[in-house]
Amino acid sequence: MPPLNIAIIGSGIAGLLAARILREQHQVTIYERTPSANETGAAINIGPNGIAILESVGLDRARARAIPVARTIAYNKAGAVTADTTVDYRREFGADWLFFHRADLRDELLRLATAPSEEVGVMGCPARVRWGVGVVGCGSGGGQGDIENGEVVLSTGEVVSADLVVAADGIKSTLRPLVLPAVPNIHPIPAGSCIFRFTLTRAQAHDALGYLPAALDRTQPGCITTVFAFDATERRVVIYPCRDFEVLNFAVIVPDAMLWRSTAAKLATSNWSAEADKEELVEHFRDFPDWVGDYLRAAPTPGLRVWRLHHTPPLPSYIAGRTVLIGDAAHAMTPHQGQGGTQAIEDAEAFRLFLGEHVTAEAVPALLRDLDRVRRPRASRIQVNNVQARGRKSAQEVHRFRRFNWTYPGVLAEVRRLNAGEGVGEEGGAVGCGYGSGGDAAEGQMDHEEEREWKL
Question: Which of 81, 106, 266, 353 has the fewest Cβ atoms surrounding its Cβ within 10 A?
C-alpha cells in the first residue's frame, strides 16, 4: 500500500514519539511553531507503562541520561518518615520507572523520529521537521469539514492537506476547539494550585546543605522524595535527580489561595507563568523541615518561575474525521500522579494501529475510531483519578492508583479485548477502567461525586 501523508502538529513527547512510530511506514512531517528544539522544562518521570513503550522503539538510556528509580520516601511537614519503600519496578511492572531531564528525553525522541533509518534500525524514511511553523486554523473553508478532511492552515499561510492530522499541540491546542466545535468548556481551566520549579547542580546542592545529598549519590538507587503538608493547603515538595545524577529537580506545589498578591497579580496577567519570588517560596514552607528550607533558599535567581496549574475535563471525543488529539491537547492533567508525559507516550503508541498492509487513506477514520475507544476511556479515568489524588491525606492514598496507571498492554491488545466484547481493561485484564458507580468509561462520563470533585 502507498504510504500515508501524515501531518503532526507539535514536537513534544507525544508528537515526536508518534513520528517515530509512523515513520516506519508513512511520510511524516512535523510542524513546530518554535524555531528550534531547545527545551526549557525541568525534569520528568516516566512510569513503567511508558518506559516499556519507549524501549520497544529503541530508547537509548545512556544518550537520554536516564536514572532508574528504586526507592520512594515520603515525609510529613514535621519531618517524620511516613513511607519508605524500595521496589524492583521491572520485576513488578515489566519495565523500569525512569527519571529524565525533559531536554534529554526530547532530544532522544527527536533522534528516534528524524535520524537515518540505519541509525535507529527501522525501515521507512525519517520524519521531517519544519521549525518555526505552527498551525493557525483548519482548511481554506474554515469549517468542521476541513478538519475532518485533514486540512490545516499553517502560520505561513499554506494550506496543508494530509491523510492523517495528529494534533499534538499541547495544553493550549489550536486544534482542540476545531475538532470539538460544539463542545463547551474544553479550554484549560485553573486547577486551584501552582507549581514552583527549579533545579540545582551537584555543586549547588552541596553548597545548600554543606554535603552532597543522598539523592545525587550514584552508588545509591534512584530515589524520589516527597514532603507532604497533609493539611488543608495540599502543599508538597517533590525532589528527584535527573541527568545521570548531575542535577536535582524540585517541583513545589502551593494552592493559589496562598500566593502573595504580587505573584497572583503577575499570574493573572500572564495566566500561565511568572518570575517567582524566592522569599515567598521559602515563606510558604517555614513549617516544613529545616532541610527543605535550605534547598528552597538555594533556588537560583533569576530563573525561578511559578506556573499556574491547568487541566482540561475529560473530552467526549478525541477525533474528527482524519484528525486526532493526543497528549495535553487531548487530556491535560496536573502533575499529582506524574502521568501527563506517560499518557502522551501511550497515545503515541496507539499509532501502531496504522502499521500494516491494511492501512489505506480510506481506512484512517475507522482506525482513529479504534484509537479513540481505547485511549479516551483510560486517559479520562486517569484525569479523574488525578483530581482525586490531589487532596489525599497519606502517601498511600496519593499512590493508590499506581497499579492502574502503570499497567497497560498497548493498543493492539486493547482493541482485541474490545472486539472480543470486553471493555477496555475490564476485570481480569491488564488495566482497569471505569468511572465508578454509574459511570460509563466508554463514553468518558463521570459520576456525580467525581464531577463535583472535578469542579472544586
Answer: 81
